[in-house]
Amino acid sequence: MALLEARSVSKNFGGVTAVNKVDFDIPDRSIVSLIGPNGAGKTTFFNLMTGIYSPTTGTVMFDGKPLMGLKIHDVTHRGIARTFQNIRLFSQMTALENVLVGEHGRLKAGLFGAIIRPPSVRREEVMARQKAMELMDFVGLKGKYEEISKNMSYGDQRRLEIARALATDPKLLLLDEPSAGMNPNETAKLTHLVQMLRDERGVTVLLIEHDMKVVMEISDRVTVLNFGRKIAEGLPDEIKANSEVIEAYLGKAYAQAVADEKEKEKH
Amino acid sequence: MKVSAPVKVPGGVVPPAARPQRVPQKRVQMVIFFALAIFAFALPYVLKVFLDPRDYVDWISLFNSMFIFILLSLGLNIVVGYAGLLDLGYAAFFAIGAYTLAFLTSSQSPLAQNGEPLTNFWIALPISFLMAGLFGLLLGAPTLGLRGDYLAIVTLGFGEIVPITFNNLTQLTGGDRGLANLTSPTFPGVVFSSTNLVPWYTLSLIVVIFSIWMIRRLINSRLGRAWQAVREDEIAASSMGINLVRTKLLAFAMGASFAGFAGALYAGSLNSANPSQFRFDVSIIVLAMVILGGMGNLWGVIIGAIVLQLSDRLLIPNLLGLITEQSNNIKQSSGADNFLAGLLANLGSSQTRLLIFGLILVVMMLVRPEGLFPSSQRRAELRADDPSNLQPQAAASDDAITAADQTRSINYNPSTNESSRPRRDE
């Protein structure tokens, strides 16, 4: 059974239909990519699955239970974590504190626990720090625990966001354009990291990505959205060969490239 | 590209890296703190030797009200500084703390039977703390879904309503006369009274130290991290599984509780609770203390409270006296209807005190919004466009990606996205 099942999901903003009757499955322990031209409704779809928006119509089931109408933090408790397209770290906190905030939902210390600090809370806090460091090591940020997160390099910030999301112990991790703004070297490392997430930690990954090299390299399945509709779905190789996709997406870029080429020749 | 090397911490039972950060610095802080605490406890006995009796009483009463305002600033700092919620009606919780104590320990209280108060001070003090916290929850629950400005307006209203309610419930609260005749605390070998102020001094100091201890533990906990996260980015915080409403509610209630402590001590040391003591200007003065000292910094806020309280009691009265004197001089030399003399006479009235507080707030906001002693985090947040806050490696590097990142971090400010976010959290 699929970990996440979206059935006929639509989202309207006033007169605009950002997502239109999309069916979408994410099998357990898979890496699924969602691609499409700018404004295709990818991020809206993402937000539908993290509780930021409720679908206008349709159902989203996660792990066998409906996901609609939940608050954002409840969605996280159910096992969905995410990163953000425009990095949203707690920029003035240290890297380690960022990851510790990710562990918030798993920790138990309440008001009295915080003030009285019984041994159980002390132990919990030590474990939390160890786990946070372990996660930072995993994403490749070993030794950068005490850096204020906004002082970190762009690639490191992206990694830290992934570590922070992993700290919530997710079953499903949603990555919103993780390679945006990265250089080829950083992108290659990221691709490897995403594969490790699935292979070593058993996390299912949904990826929104513009870099086709990344998408085609690591995805088990690719879904293509255009104008809020799903226009194709399948294995990476099938998507590459799909004429509708080429027209809507790759073709457009190609046409643009050709136009640019001509422009250059004129001058 | 490393900006700051990881802080070295001494080893111990816990694996070194797993220890809380900046341990040596914390130890120095503890030593300084204990030295200051001992100094503060000894101060009344030292002053007694050096000051003549009248001045001595004035000073001790000044210190007592300073402690009350330190407590208020510490509490409001949780709400405004750590959780980033603007509370303009904080005096309401101060009033609730004071009236709770009065209800429980005054012989004039409706709860008193045959002129015997319900209970003694020591039981009433923690109840005042809890009661103010409870009202914090009650006010916060329906309103904390609101953002920024809306929350400020609701708290402003609450701050006005509470003293007026106490004023108008004449049957219960004695109206504008208030409740007097509170039972003084009893302690073997110590006499608490409104004339013997040193025991009140010691008690207030103990409560202040206890509160600092509590607040320090709170902010270095899972809850404190959640407060900071919510302040920095609500969407990201809730995506990390933080329940926004509950987290803010706890901040609001905890902040209110410390006003409850302050209120109880205030009413106890004055031996009465009276609605005119809790007017709007108290909320604003406490806010001014928090802003002056540095939002989000425990020690800064304490210094803010001390500085403003000292200037309120010493500097401003002297200044006003000077102005009045000048005005009288001008009147004598150039006639009673001199414009300047009239202006100065008006400025010399005690109302000017509030004008000065207002000026302090405005000047601080313009010149040093992070306060005199800012927490490093708050400083960076409030000065996001300050080039000195940019990451050094980006400024030095011509790497296109880092440069792009730099632009992003300048423009990126969660609060500018406000309008695109849903107004309610639920």
Task: Give an account of the 3D structure.
The complex is a heterodimer of chains A (267) and B (426). Chain A has 267 residues and is α/β, with parallel strands linked by helices. Chain A contains ten helices and ten strands. Chain A has helices at residues 42-49, 72-78, 95-102, 111-116, 119-138, 154-166, 184-201, 212-218, 236-241, 243-266; strands spanning 2-13, 16-27, 31-35, 57-62, 65-66, 80-82, 172-176, 204-208, 221-226, 229-234. Chain A has a six-stranded mixed sheet, with helices on both faces. In chain A, helix 3 (95-102) crosses helix 5 (119-138), helix 3 (95-102) runs parallel beside helix 6 (154-166) and helix 5 (119-138) packs across helix 6. Chain A is globular. In chain B, helix 2 (53-82) runs parallel beside helix 7 and helix 12 (298-334) runs antiparallel to helix 13 (339-347). The longest helix of chain B is centred in the last third of the chain and has 37 residues, at 298-334. Chain B is built from 17 helices and four strands. By secondary structure, chain B is an all-alpha fold. In chain B, strand 2 (186-187) and strand 3 (190-191) form a beta hairpin. Classes of the chains: A alpha/beta (267), B mainly alpha (426). The interface between A and B is large, with 59 and 56 residues.
